Amino acid sequence: MAIIARARAMRKALTPSEARLWVALRELRHEGLHFRRHAPLRGYYLDFFCWARGVIVEVDGGSHLDEDRARQDRVRDVVFAREGLITLRYDNLMVRDELAQVVEDVRGRCLARPTRSPLRGDHPPPQGEGEDFS
User: Fold this and answer.
1) In a domain, 40, yes or no
2) What is the pLDDT of residues 63-89, one digit of tens each?
3) Which of 36, 28, 27 is nearest to 7 (CA)?
4) What is this structure's pTM?
5) pLDDT at position 129, please?
6) Residues with Cβ < 8 Å from 100, sequence gap 6 or more?
7) Is residue 123 part of a domain?
8) DSSP assignment letter at 58
9) CATH code assigned at 96
C-alpha cells in the first residue's frame, strides 16, 4: 500500500516540466494514447506510461547528468527494454522550450508501436465476444 501512497503523493507534486508535459499528453487521448502519471512498475515510478503501446516517458532534471544517476537510468531502461517497453527521455529544457516537438515525438513513437495485449488474457475484449445477435 505504501507504493500506491507514494505514487499518489508524487502525482500531486509534479515538477513544472512534468506538469506542462502532462497537460499536453492528455490531449493525445483522442488518438487512443492514454498516459498514467508516476505509475509504479517493477520498483520504479515512471513519470508517464502509455501501457497500451509500451512507452515510458521520462522528464529528466539536472540530477540525471550525474554519472551514477545516468548509469542507474541506463540499467532501468534495459530492464524495461527486456519487457518490450521503450523509454523516451527528455530534459526539462526541451519540455519547456520545445513542447510541441516533444509531444509530436512521443505521439509518433507511440503510434509506430503495436498495441499491447491486455495484462490478463482471460478478460473479454471491451466490445464483447462471441456471435453478434443484433
Assistant:
1) yes
2) 556 688 788 889 899 999 999 999 999
3) 36
4) 0.78
5) 44
6) none
7) no
8) E
9) 3.40.960.10
